Give the backbone structure.
Amino acid sequence: MQINFCTPQFFFNISQKFPFVVYDFRENQNGYLKNSVHLSNLDDDMETISDFQKYLEYPEQISERQKLEKLFNNRKRIYNFFVSFDTSDMFSLIFKQKVKVEGSQVSDQFSISADLVIQMWQEVDKMTKKDNTLKKKNRAQTLMLQPINDEINEGDSQQNLFYLGIKQPIVSSRRFLEYHETTISNGPKIKYRSVSQPKLEGSGNDCIYSNSELFEATLKAYEIFLKEKIRQIFIVLDPIQIIFANYPFLNYSLVRNRGFLDKTFPNEIIEKKLYLGNGEHAKDTEMLIDILGITHVVNSTVEIKNYSNQLKYLKIEIYDEPHVCVKQYFDQVYQFIDNALQENGKVFIHCAQGKSRSACFTVMYLMRKNEWPFEQAYDYVRECREDVCINEGFINQLID
């Protein structure tokens, strides 16, 4: 048995095309994702899907409830996402420390054995119960277990540090609490809180982690789903506040009255930098500019015009035919994208369907920028956007 984790980027990309449902196990609801069903206080005697279903809490809106009930009944043919973590804490972080590495080659989904996950959880659970002098502190929606008399040092000019009684640093973050102002579709600015992702500074017997009981319930539900041979189950490893910080338009409570629930977005290739999509996305300049913050567009078509004078375009007029010499444009496209990203811009690459021409330029950029072989870059792009299917002629030119 393998337990599957995924990043917010994987969730974002999958949710643009495929049916999905989110099972939200968090105790404190601070905004929630669309297609979310909430669960809390699960019973230890829960053994079957029928038992599990008794705990589902649907939204009050009848239309949303009906949609989610239909998704649940079709759960074997959809993506099932489990959301266990409300904010940045050491319990989610320790998993990332175990299974992910630094650098651009990190996959946005990965699996580790259930035995290892359960062993790690049991270690954390044992720590949280060993000392009844500990109390749970809730600060900026981040949960940590600390000795009662410990303080959090905060200052604008220095990193914020958690300390235990022996003054051992456990978590440091450049800015522990961040305020974000987000403007969506020319509407009012929305202020919300999120928490910076901390990094692991030390571990040992004195380190206490939170979310232990919550994750136990997640593992229980995961096991029940597997009994029905449901394979598309992913635990979103990053806290939901990180998701909202990167993708505020996925917060159902913010967008339900703004007409964005049925919008689809281009797929994100490089986090908050590079996107790949189709001609319909290219037409929706409100979405590109106001929601995603796109500044530059590579239009790799003959048939689609440039739609906005607010965006900087590079138009490469080619057809999706194997005999077309696409490699003659590689230098020009690479420099356009690279210059835009160095200027802190955001780039959207598109063709008619987002499958071949635009995907070819996307793969080319990753190959050059990261010094990746073709197979690695192609697999990465297809993982982000499953529609991708570059024609054989373009592939041969990329390999050359």
User: Anything to note?
Assistant: Residues 112 and 238 are 16 Å apart (CA to CA). The first helix runs from residue 8 to 14.
